[in-house]
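Exercise (ungraded).
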Amino acid sequence: MYRYDEFDHAFVSARVDQFKDQVERRLAGELTEDQFRPLRLMNGVYLQLHAYMLRVAIPYGTLSSRQMRKLAHIARHYDRGYGHFTTRQNLQYNWPALKDMPKVLDELASVEMHALQTSGNCIRNVTADHFAGAAADEVADPRPYAEILRQWSSMHPEFSYLPRKFKIAVTGAERDRAAIQVHDIGLHLKKNATGEIGFAVYVGGGQGRTPMVAKKIRDFLPVEDLLSYTTAIMRVYNLNGRRDNKYKARIKILVHETGTEELTRQVEAEFRVLKETDLKLPQKDVDAIDSYFAPPSLPVRPEGWSELAAARKADHAFSAWVDQNVTPHKNPDYGVVTISLKPIGGIPGDATDAQMDLVADIAEKFSQDEIRVSHEQNLVLPHVAIADLRIVYDLLLTDGLATANAGLITDIIACPGLDYCALANARSIPVAQRISERFGKPERQSDIGELKIKISGCINACGHHHVGHIGILGVEKKGEELYQISLGGSGDEICTIGDITGRGFSSEEIVDAVETIVDRYLEIRTDKEETFLTTYRRVGAAPFKDALYSEAANAA
Amino acid sequence: MSVKVLTANRLTDGEAVWLGANGEWLEHIDGALIARHAEAVTALEEAGKAAIKSNLVIDVNVIDVEERGTNLYPLRLRERIRQLGPTIRLDLGKQAEKPKATAA
């Protein structure tokens, strides 16, 4: 893992001191709220419905056990005993007091963490594949490049007041687990024909009120040009992005209005100017960052496979968990474990302080002291020996963390929604809970297979509903919650925005509507191997609309 | 009939509060100062501006409520949730102190 150097420590410490002073001046009345709001937002502090909210950055979703224990400690001492892992691989506390914020930031700094650039019109926390450095299908670890981007973008004087927020995601495998095509910049780490590492560069993706899939503007960018090319994109955006209308200010609108060809021309022209400047990455600097992410030295553990076979035979629930929540590792003696934060009927992404401590203990003993946060609001133990799966499972079971549903219909993404969020129009979490309960039986989930439901409580789409196989958007209509359904969205390498089915459904109707869609899928799939998304792509929206609206019409 | 009250979040901890008939900011909607006509609403808005200036509260808003017996019932779900707490965690927020209430 990356460790702070002296500069990093001094930088974060100075920022904590600065914010401490700003909070004191605010509480003393020396700063007005209008003056203070942009300052608190730069430090990750929002105001929500019931209290302030602090969003903590977890760069590329990577945590050590020590850091996770600190997050648990903060939850226990400054919040209400839990935290919420978000779709941007961050953690949000829902109840901290303003007067405590400097102390919380001090605590975070003590474990090399902060809340900088988790809000505001700047380059936000860079996200990456949550299986980085572990997955069997990976070409190269994306985290060193995410870290280089983090360092470059932190307090970047030219890019701290952009037209709008800016999100970058990096993936290192053909299978896109980081949803790079719905980011402002998506980087796909790959090898060219001669075996060199570089990036395919995507620009102008995003969700929100105008969802768009990013356009590929470079098929292969050498690593040494990462910062000069990214700077070129940022300059074109910073100069030409709209500042007159916040709903048209994201780079996706600029790409759309300019046209991909012309925008690419502008970026390439800017890049030619920057290419041979000091933005060019020296190999020794890349190597230095790379060394922090060197693969752990994993002991040979071949005994695991026979032990696993026996354990699976003896316990069906354990076997189902291995099938669903363990992914192949680069090292055949190891697996990548997804810890579901989606217990049946639970709150997606929430973890108690005790659960965080438990995960930290398990990671320390059984996963090389590493934990990941996924944008799907789960946790990941990236390096678990096959021989240790049983004991890890048993430990997770002790605190409700062994739900065998990764990628299934109950592994639902949901934003905080109107239960917490000041921007929301409708609740998300209770809908997720009711769907989870409806489909919670293991046999039923297994029969349905891979199906990603994503729920947002407003058009800002923090719950990624546009790329849900089934997406649900909550709106407010005539004082009531109403839920609009979209189908066929996908955030992976074949990225698509879902199609809206038609009129929305009330809170009482929405779970039945989802069940109607699922039942229709089960009727028309060619066989069990054909997933919901594949079926949708084969047959289109018509059979589902027919089921939804003709049934509704019949009922009426 | 819909009437109006003034609500905000307390500066120090973000707690949802309502302007009381006694001029204090209250942690519960009971006892909130009720505006029944346009002049009274204007007075509420002025009180809100003054409270912002005195740095007691932030995010001040006049909201619609209905008088139901002795209770005040906010018309928007958003405000009912602010009044009580998250509907998914009845152990948190003001509802944890007032078990009889329901938010939605």
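Further reading is listed at the end of the chapter. For now, observe: Residues 409 and 451 of chain A are 5 Å apart (CA to CA). Chain A has four domains: 6-109, 142-292, 304-397, 413-555.
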